[in-house]
Amino acid sequence: MQPKTSAPTVNAKTDSIFTVEDTSYYYGSFKAVRGVTLEIASHEITALIGPSGCGKSTVLRCFNRLNDLIPGAHIEGRIAYRGVDIYNKGVDPTELRRRIGMVFQKPNPFPKPIYDNVAYGARINGYQGDMDELVEKSLRQAALWDEVKDKLKDSGLSLSGGQQQRLCIARAIAIAPEVILMDEPCSALDPISTLKIEELMHQLKENYTIIIVTHNMQQATRVSDKTAFFNAEAMESGSKVGYLVEYDTTKNIFNNPQSDYTRDYVSGRFG
Amino acid sequence: MTESVFKDSASEGADQSGLWQPNRSASKLSQKAVVILFGAFAMVSVFTTFGIIFTLLFETIEFFREVSIIEFFTATRWTALFANPEFGVMVLMCGTFLTSVIGLIIAIPLGLLSAICLSEYAPRQLRKVLKPALELLAGVPTVVFGYFALLLVTPFLRSFIPDMSIFNALSAGIVLGFAILPTIASLSEDAIFAVPSSLRQGSYALGSTKRETITGVVLPAALSGIVASIILGVARAVGETMIVTLAAGQSPTLTLDPRVSVQTMTSFIVQVTKGDAPYGTIEFKTLFAVGMTLFVITLILNIFSFWFVRKYQEKYE
Amino acid sequence: MKSSVQTLPPSSDDQFKSQLDKRYNIDRIFQAISWIATFSGIVVLTILIIGILSQGLSTLSFDFLTSPPSRQPDRAGVWPAFLGSIFLVIITGAVSFPIGVGSGIFLQEFARENKLAKVIEINISNLAAVPSIIYGLLGLFVFARLMSAITGGRSVLSGGLTLALLILPVIIVATREALKAVPDSIRQAGMALGATEWQTVRTHVLPQAIPGIMTGTILALSRAIGETAPIIAVGAAAFVPFAPEFSIEGLQEPAFTAMPIQIFNWVSRPQEEFHTIAASAIIILMIVLLAMNATAILLRNRFQNSR
């Protein structure tokens, strides 16, 4: 069966923040993901789903060029942020990362007080306004303020797992990014914290664009507007290369998928 | 009950061929003997500590029968080997302090920066060469460093610093710094290496540069290990003997001028033991009083380090 | 493909003044400083080696190695000191190796959770921070005086025992690390076959740990060779014109010397000629150290690769 890639029709009202044009992702000479084309629309939640090993995290980490930190990692193709090729010589990855925040799979708050965790990014990037206000606003947006407002001086590591992750979200939004990348943000958390964060994502959608990698299909149905389904196929060399199978609104992916692979995956037949 | 079951099965026919003849009681006996023997060996280190404390305490008490404690800690002259001796240990402590501080001014920044460079900036291949090179520096015997200080560094310093005497604290201090630099570098590097990469990635994802990540996240996260390495460096500087003996001289002087000869606690001990002081004399007892002072200082440093690491060490799962 | 240089569109949020240029400048300065710091140590090491070689190579000869010391620098040699160092290493090794390895086995294999073991552990890490000259005072009091009937007073035996105590913590730690590196599955396999703990350790665990133990011991002994302060304190004299005998009486002879002592003594003399032969003696000492360290590293590499 030929895998089908379909690009969603771009709604004239929402503009697209990211355009990925036939981009392949490499580690050294190893091709991890081949030929991806998709558009991320602003103020929407886009989920990247698929079985493990098909390169979803790789794709995600290239949006803010965090993958540059891995020696040998590079892309072929074009990833554009608001029309500008982010791998262009003139683009400063440090500046890019201020605009595109990231939340990681395992919560990684700094071993600093909660206040300083949130303020860290803002200080580095030369925030001109009132820091106390910014910290409070960010913690409120991350639905954490009420729980920590009396203990801002406590270490970030003293919080529970779910709280730590919300602290990381507060930390990310403190520097006013446009986009928040989330790499399986709930996989290390308990179900209750997971639900809290999913509620949070719906609120965050009003102000930010979110791209989330998730293993959890139900989560994708609960939170995302669009879903991109990735799969991996075996090569003659014995290794696997990932590819984009189908990209559509979440409703279509789960209720009316065009590809058999997609249908099999979302109905739980594999992965 | 259990015993008889086993006995029965053994005698009844678990093995009638006689091929298996385990000598279980002999094995058990040798196990017991070995545990006791090795346990006794392990106690040797405990006896060493007790031996040190007892040795120092014994002769120190003898010393303070003849010399008042107040004089020992408050007098400002140290003329222990002279006819009318004065015992102001402050003078020796000042010498130790002066040389150690000079050494630490060199060793702490250079050691820490080396650790940062090795773990964050140096490419893998270069690191394979640089690390052994630093370990080589660590393996140089201190008497060789003493040679270096007295015969190479001092003439160099004297060529452009006015009024620099042949025996001086600066030369000793500088070389001392390079002698303990590898200690601080190596332990700090371990601490920095142990910081999980997830913290670094979190920092980069917020739009920070490499230096900002190092100073803002990595170093604070590695703080307890770095402080422990520095304290160990301080202890080494204070206890260092040969470099200061050869290069700083034997003149007890209460001064902060690094161009002048001073005597440290350690070089005083060398001076007396080299001279074959007979047992029971005041010189002999002075050895141990000074040794006791030195020991207490390093003990306090060690306890502080232990407490600091316990309190501030972050545990990353 | 267009190769024009593009920059990111200006951000809608003007509350952040990134000042990236200034930050990158500080980055560059910081990086440069850290490289300078790293190379400072290496530069010092190089100057040291060049200085020693340039001063000491000319007087280095076989005669120098095999002659006794003398009041005249051009006839002086290091033979008694060299032999003295060898004796010291043998005694130190003979005492510290069994005790150190045994202690390490005890702490790591038999008594891991024990409270007594914890006390011993804390004790050992304390001892590591004690200045080496304090060990010398211990040796002076206990070995040279209290036990003078056995050791012969300020003899090479006392010196060796003192150095053994000094490097004992190093060998214990090295043993424990080597034992720790042996996977537990091996121990469990041995115990499952009905062996006692000691039998398992002796036949299964120790053989795998031996290379690591040997490496640690050789490194510890190379440290002992270079130690000066403790053996001065115990009473190593500098002018010992005769070579020590390898017999009970020889070991108990209340006068001995060693390479570091000889070097120390010659450096302390004001005459330039003594400085020159001091450098020659240093070269010999460093060669021995290099050989020992190289052996240790070779051992470590060889057995790491054969896993």
Walkthrough of the structure:
The complex is a heterotrimer of chains A (271), B (317) and C (307). Chain A is built from ten helices and ten strands. Chain A is α/β, with parallel strands linked by helices and 271 residues long. Chain A has a ten-stranded mixed β-sheet, with helices on both faces. Chain B has helices at residues 2-14, 24-66, 69-74, 89-121, 124-139, 142-158, 169-193, 197-205, 210-221, 223-239, 242-247, 265-274, 282-312. Chain C has a single domain, classed as Orthogonal Bundle (MetI-like fold). Helices cover 74% and strands 0% of the residues of chain C. Chain C has 13 helices and no strands. Chain C has helices at residues 20-56, 62-66, 79-110, 115-128, 132-146, 148-151, 156-180, 184-192, 197-226, 229-234, 248-252, 259-268, 272-305. The two termini of chain C are 51 Å apart. Chains B and C meet through helix 2, helix 4, helix 5, helix 6 and helix 7 of B and helix 1, helix 3, helix 4, helix 5 and helix 7 of C.
Approximate shape of chain A: globular
Largest sheet of chain A: 10 strands, mixed
Report mean pLDDT of chain A, rounded to a whole number. 89
Number of strands of chain A: 10
The tally of strands of chain B reads: 0
Biggest interface and which pair forms it?
A: B-C, 91 and 92 residues
Question: What's the CATH architecture name of the largest domain in chain B?
Answer: Orthogonal Bundle
Oligomer: heterotrimer
Radius of gyration of chain B from the CA trace? 28 Å
Q: What percent strand of chain A?
A: 25-35%
* CATH class descriptor name of the largest domain in chain B: Mainly Alpha
Q: Order of SSEs of chain A, N→C? A: EEEHEEHEHHHHEHEHEEHH
Structural class by sheet pairing and helices of chain A = alpha/beta
According to CATH, the fold-level topology of the largest domain in chain B is MetI-like fold
List the secondary-structure elements of chain B in sequence, H or E: HHHHHHHHHHHHH
